[in-house]
Specification:
With about 700 residues, the chain is α/β, with parallel strands linked by helices. The chain has 20 helices and 28 strands. The longest helix has 22 residues, at about 150-170. The chain is globular and about 95 Å long.
Length: about 700
């Protein structure tokens, strides 16, 4: 009897469900909604994918119109199309709108931009009249790639202005804003014609709409850097953030602190903790609903990001002092997070078979924080290790080191896309063939294209790629500062690098929301490569051009034939000296060797003034060498040099009666020997280059 009753109730429940009408979803838009460019739009257009995700309780219909504009005075107004009338008749319970891409046409936005907001609100009101209870979602525009023929002539800027207008509409028209831009932006290859997504791109849009409608973002998730043994930045308010299902309450606790937040409609949440005291161990707990994430053996201390190319990647096991230092590397107060690539790229041919992983920005292996030990430190960055060890010894607080270094990588690979699109778009164009890339990279890129046919592809050296795959996923994990060892792959073009390096520092500081974020870098060592003298001097000049930077000179530890000199301890410790002096206020720590300040000429000699000049002398006890002077004819001759009683360097040559220029260490591989009282070497310089 009881089983019969239960069965009857179940049958009745199913009947009620079957009698319910499905929730109607109207997808309104242009050719991107329609599915233009897809081989099978009836299978792959985003509304079709959305229907599959939402299931039988929903009825999704596609009202996309190719070429449609939002503007009613545009060249093809959506509200004058049959698809608009059909969408009104459909009277959707949910309406998803993506319009505005075609309004970037020079026929439209320049003339009628003042009508965009009112026309968009009129469109919204039309759907509310058709179904007063409808829920409306409007989308930020999908990206337009830099390959678009009108990108720089207006499309780039008008696209950005339309995005701002859409955000304003969402704020004041009581509609939900979803983002079609952010999830596609790092994947320009998913826009083959620079506008229309592939089926993979359409699936991303469908997922975005699904999340917006259901609030299902896959539950509680934290950035990849949150693991056991991690180090959290101490001594400053600490922002912890992640994702959860929309509307879900999230609780974060550590020590005696507990903070709560509610996940927004886009699934994002954040809390701000009061500054942690250095030390630990702590347990960090993050919970939402029935989910709970617990991170153990967490320390609070100083966190530094260590990045660049192969000389930063260079393992402690390979350094000249490895035999002594690796066995002594055990230190519970130093923690390592090593972002290793899935395969090495240092001057080797890359394999087209790995394109799938590259295309999905999965270039890095999965990793986690580890305690520093002989087993973990040996295959970690030598420069980063020596930097961290000196900090930990001096500060006596835990130190966390995040290493993200890729052999052979050029600066442009580490800069965010928006920065390059607006400030250096030429370097994005046809990157394997343009004039900014070195020949050896161009040759391997061409080989890769040949192997993979006409398929659009990515490589770690592509502009923006390493930012998108390796910096963006860090999701602004709080760091104290950055150390950087890179430049070898840009040394052939110092003029381009001068622009790129400034953009890199600017974009990283913007990413971490800290305009004063310390950025200490290594000046290239010496090697028999002709361009390196000019490049080293260019790096020196960054010190006066970019605030909150420091430069570790490494030319005295170079190798004439090897781009990977094995003397890394000095380099790491010189970077640490900058941090101790400038970031931590240890004024007794000299951060640099002599740095050129100015020169005066008198009676046939040059008198050179330096910063950090106390105790200048020749490191080997011999005469100071590698100074040269020239007159107005710029013919340089070796010169004699001596320290004067007032702390300057007097430089002269019998072959130059009236010198007007002085330079030092101006050889690709230099045996320059000027140091200060701290034993730190002077930098390459040329007095007439500003």
């Amino acid at each position: 009897m009881k089983k019969t009753l239960i069965l009857s109730l179940y049958i009745l429940f199913c009947a009620v469900l079957s009698a319910q009408k499905p929730v109607k979803v109207a997808c309104v838009g242009n050719s991107i909604t329609y599915g233009y460019g897809l081989a099978d739009r009836d299978k792959d257009a985003y509304p079709v994918k959305l229907q599959q995700m939402l299931g039988k309780g929903y009825l999704v219909d596609n009202f996309g119109k190719s070429g449609a504009t939002l503007l009613n005075k545009g060249h093809r107004p959506y509200m004058q199309q049959k698809e608009f009338k059909d969408a009104l008749a459909f009277a959707g319970d949910i309406v998803v709108i993506h319009l505005g891409i075609n309004d970037t046409d020079p026929r439209d936005w320049p003339n009628y931009r003042d009508f965009f907001i009112q026309d968009y609100r009129a469109l919204i009101d039309s759907f509310r009249v058709a179904n007063p209870k409808c829920r409306i979602l409007i989308a930020r525009l999908t990206p337009i790639a830099d390959r678009h023929p009108r990108f720089e002539s207006g499309t780039r800027d008008w696209h950005g202005e339309i995005q701002q207008a859409i955000e304003t509409i969402a704020k004041y028209a009581n509609v939900q804003l979803i983002d079609f831009h952010e999830p596609l932006y790092p994947y320009p290859y998913l826009l083959p014609d620079a506008v229309h997504p592939t089926k993979e791109g359409a699936a991303i849009l469908a997922k975005t709409v699904y999340e917006g409608i259901t609030g299902d973002f896959g539950g509680l998730q934290m950035p990849e850097l949150f693991t056991d043994n991690m180090v959290l930045q101490y001594g400053q308010p600490l922002k912890i953030h992640g994702t959860a299902n929309a509307g879900e309450k999230v609780t974060v606790s550590i020590g005696k602190q507990k903070q709560q937040a509610v996940a927004a409609s886009n699934g994002k949440w954040s809390v701000e903790l009061q500054p942690l005291k250095a030390g630990g161990p702590y347990t960090l707990t993050v919970s939402a609903g029935k989910q709970k994430l617990e991170y153990n053996n967490v320390l609070a201390g100083e966190v530094w990001l260590c990045s660049g190319q192969s000389n930063m990647e260079f393992y402690l096991n390979w350094s000249v002092t490895a035999k002594q230092d690796v066995p002594q590397a055990a230190n519970n107060n130093i923690r390592l997070y090593d972002m290793k690539a899935r395969w090495r790229t240092d001057a080797v041919e890359w394999d087209a078979s790995v394109l799938d992983s590259l295309n999905h920005l999965q270039y890095y292996k999965d990793t986690e924080w580890t305690v520093c030990s002989p087993a973990t430190a040996g295959n970690f960055s030598a420069v980063a290790y020596y930097f961290g060890k000196k900090l930990q010894d001096s500060l006596q607080v835990p130190v966390g080191l995040i290493c993200n270094a890729i052999g052979g990588s050029p600066t442009e690979a580490w800069v965010d896309r928006s920065t390059l699109e607006y400030q250096f778009p030429a370097i994005l164009r046809d990157w394997t063939k343009n004039d900014f890339i070195q020949d050896w990279v161009r040759g391997r890129a061409a080989l890769n294209v040949k192997k993979s046919g006409d398929k659009l592809q990515r490589h770690p050296y592509e502009p923006c790629y390493l930012y998108e795959s390796g910096i963006r996923p860090l999701q602004q994990f709080p760091v104290k500062g950055i150390i950087w060892y890179q430049g070898e792959s840009n040394a052939h073009n110092r003029e381009a690098h001068e622009k790129l390096f400034k953009l890199l520092v600017e974009s990283w500081r913007k990413n971490w929301g800290n305009a004063d974020l310390p950025f200490y870098y290594v000046q290239l060592s010496s090697i028999d490569r002709p361009s390196w003298t000019w490049f080293r001097d260019s790096q020196r000049r960054f010190l006066s051009e970019i605030p909150h930077t420091g430069m570790a000179v490494s030319s005295d530890r170079g190798d004439s034939l090897d781009v990977h000199p094995k003397f890394k301890k000095e380099v790491g410790e010189r970077l640490a000296a900058w941090a101790l002096n400038k970031t931590y206020g240890y004024k007794n720590v000299i951060p640099s060797g002599p740095l050129y300040r100015s020169v005066t000429f008198d009676k046939g000699a040059a008198y050179v003034s330096f910063d950090y000049s106390d105790g200048m002398h020749a490191v080997d006890g011999k005469d100071i060498r590698t100074f040269e002077v020239a007159g107005d004819d710029q013919a340089f001759y070796p010169a004699k040099a001596m320290v004067t009683t007032d702390g300057k360097i007097k430089v002269w040559s019998d072959k130059v009666k009236q010198p007007t220029i002085v330079r030092y260490g101006w050889q690709p591989f230099t045996r320059a020997n000027l140091v200060n009282g701290a034993g730190l070497p002077a930098s390459t310089f040329r007095s007439d280059v500003k």
